[in-house]
Design a protein that fits this description.
- The structure holds two protein chains of two kinds.
- Chain A is mainly α.
- Helix content of chain A is 74%, strand content 1%.
- Chain A has 15 helices and two strands.
- Chain A has a two-stranded antiparallel ribbon.
- Chain B is α/β, with parallel strands linked by helices.
- Chain B has two domains: 174 residues, P-loop containing nucleotide triphosphate hydrolases (Rossmann fold), CATH 3.40.50; 67 residues, no CATH class.
- Chain B has a six-stranded mixed β-sheet with strand order 6-7-8-3-9-10, with helices on both faces. Chain B has a four-stranded antiparallel β-sheet with strand order 2-1-4-5, with helices on one face.
- In chain B, α3 packs across α4.
- Chain B starts with 5 loop residues before the first strand and ends with a helix.
- The chains are: A mainly alpha, B alpha/beta.
- Chains A and B meet through α9 and α10 of A and α2 and α3 of B.
Chain lengths: 321, 253
């Protein structure tokens, strides 16, 4: 059974490594660790709808941006930071549940296009509702007291904490009836319906799960940076980057999103630091090559057959007597 | 007389201007094996689709065990014990055979937990003779085995009425014999069966009763030997040669 547990140990070490950066590295590395934790949380969230359920959602930035605005507005109204984050989580979850009922009637490419439209619509709404949201000028969020070091530690703890929460939710869903049902939908939605799965409710649950923590992360991000505006909060680049990270690591698995988000963020950082002029082009080429040659993601590479099923412990029914 | 397990009352279905089914009425009694035959395009699969909620009837009423199910959705049909297999098999391709059947047990069969569903699935694999293939991915199976998998999955949903949409199509003669034995043992469990079939060997050796569908209308309903003699059925479906063969078989004993 060691083979089933070692990925969890590696993940625990990874959490410690990220969480302990302030003790052994400078502010640049701490900032990088926060970014990795943030994108890991977003990617694990996307995995619920895109990986488990197989619906290619591009709504991540809508949930993230909405979360950051709800959090920022709540904090400006005097709500304590953590409560503002909780409110953002709740409202974004409700938003996704309501939206899912409409959007999930679409399948495949149509769903993808619809979900990307959501990002634009929400961005335009926020940008044009200037009296309430500050419009294109953006919003200042009350700063957290303490020096840069303290602030970095607080947000590192917050982002790593959220990441662990999403991961725990993923493990829970993967082992539950919900996770099994979502996999059925991913492989054959009509057949899933025929074996008695209420596909509508299951899909809405997956879409809502994919939104909840994006709301939390968005609100935390707003508190961290102290300033948000519509263009940055609802960035199309983010909405595409997150699914790419998931595919890179291995979508539909537990550990794929963790590996993908870390690998992508580090690669991006490496290219940005070393090839200032061409970093986006090189990164784009790397993505194309990776997706082309590793359609199953890094996790599904045939590392002597070991990696294939890491993420799905219950899928290995050892032929019992 | 007890309530019929399934009752159709003047059920119709139109796709745009095409009347796929017109005013179909019949009732199935519990424990029967009934065959539904008819030429291609007669509306057999459409009828099963209406009964399981894949399509919604344009008119008429469908009742299952006394409950009106005309407007149900497929997952509700499955949970009620109204299950079917597909003409074109519908597995979860990247799941193991065992998991495919467990999905039926968990969601359609109402088993509470994963372990319980797995145990129920193993039972059905045993029954359908697929135990050796339990850990294979469903996509790796032969057609005959996939059809058995469909059966095992349906059985795991604890059906009261099982509709088999051409489970024998594309199988060779010995595979058909195997499938026949299986269908008979399912019937012995008290499950009512509606078979859609083109293979006459299946119909005449299996069915208690035959329904004949032609151009969306029910043109005959009776025991197999009677049906084979009816002029309309011969013209629409069986053909003269086959009818003579049946008649000869009857007179010879």
């Amino acid at each position: 059974m060691i083979s089933r547990r070692w990925p969890y140990f590696l993940f625990a070490i990874w959490i410690l490594a990220l969480g302990s950066t302030p003790l052994w590295a400078g502010n640049y590395v701490v900032r990088l660790a926060i970014t990795i934790a943030m994108f890991t949380g977003l990617t694990l969230s996307w995995n619920f709808i895109g990986g488990f359920t197989g619906y290619p959602s591009f709504s991540t930035a809508a949930f993230f941006g909405l979360g950051s605005y709800v959090g920022a507005l709540a904090q400006r109204a005097g709500m304590p930071m953590v409560f503002a984050w909780a409110l953002a989580t709740l409202l974004v979850g409700l938003f996704a549940a309501a939206l899912g009922g409409i959007l999930l009637r679409l399948r495949g490419h149509y769903f993808a296009i619809g979900s990307i439209g959501v990002v634009e619509v929400v961005r335009l709404l926020i940008a044009s509702w200037g009296s309430f949201t500050g419009g294109g000028d953006g919003l200042n969020v009350p700063f957290v007291a303490g020096g840069p070091d303290v602030v970095a530690r607080i947000f590192l703890a917050a982002m790593v904490g959220i990441m662990v929460a999403v991961f725990a939710t993923t493990v829970g869903v993967d082992r539950s009836r919900l996770g099994f049902g979502l996999r059925c939908i991913q492989q054959n939605e009509d057949a899933a319906d025929m074996v008695g799965i209420n596909t509508t409710i299951y899909k809405i649950a997956a879409y809502t799960l994919s939104a909840l923590f994006c709301g939390t992360i968005g609100a935390a991000y707003a508190s961290w940076t102290g300033y948000i505006d519509p263009n940055e909060s609802f960035s199309i680049l983010m909405t595409i980057k997150v699914p790419v990270m998931c595919l890179l690591g291995g979508s539909g698995t537990i550990f794929g999103p963790v590996i993908g988000a870390a690998a992508f963020t580090l690669l991006e950082e490496f290219f940005w630091a070393n090839f200032l002029d061409y970093n986006r082009a090189i990164l784009g080429a790397v993505i194309v090559v990776l997706i082309f040659f590793l359609p199953g993601g890094l996790l599904r590479m045939p590392y002597r057959g070991l990696g294939t099923r890491i993420g799905r412990p219950w899928v290995q029914p050892k032929a019992a007597a | 007389m007890s309530t019929p397990i399934l009752k159709l009352d003047r059920v119709s279905k139109a796709f745009g201007g095409i009347h796929a089914l017109r005013q179909i009425s019949f009732a199935l009694e519990e424990g029967q094996i009934v065959a539904l035959i008819g030429p291609n395009g007669a509306g057999k699969t459409t009828l099963v689709n209406l009964i399981t909620g894949v399509h919604r009837a344009s008119g008429g009423r469908i009742a299952f065990r006394g409950t009106d199910v005309t407007r149900q959705r497929p997952f509700q049909a499955a949970r009620r014990g109204l299950t079917r297999t597909f003409q074109i098999v519908q597995p979860f391709p990247r799941m193991s055979v065992l998991e495919n059947v467990a999905a039926g047990a968990l969601f359609g069969g109402g088993h509470a937990g994963m372990d319980e569903a797995m145990a129920a699935a193993r039972e059905q694999l045993e029954f359908t003779g697929l135990s050796d293939l339990a850990d294979r991915p469903a996509s790796a199976l032969t057609l005959a085995a996939r059809k058995r998998l469909e059966l095992a999955k349906s059985l795991a949903m604890k059906p009261h009425l099982l509709m088999l949409d051409e489970v024998n199509a594309g199988l060779n003669s010995s595979e058909i014999d195997g499938a026949l034995a299986l269908i008979r043992s399912i019937a012995r469990r008290g499950i009512t069966i509606l078979v859609i079939e083109h293979v006459m060997k299946v119909i005449f050796s299996l069915a208690d009763r035959v329904l004949v569908l032609h151009h969306g209308e029910l043109i005959a309903d009776g025991v197999p030997s009677d049906i084979a003699g009816q002029q309309r059925v011969i013209e629409a479906y069986l053909g003269q040669k086959f009818a003579r063969r049946i008649a000869r078989a009857e007179t010879n004993g």
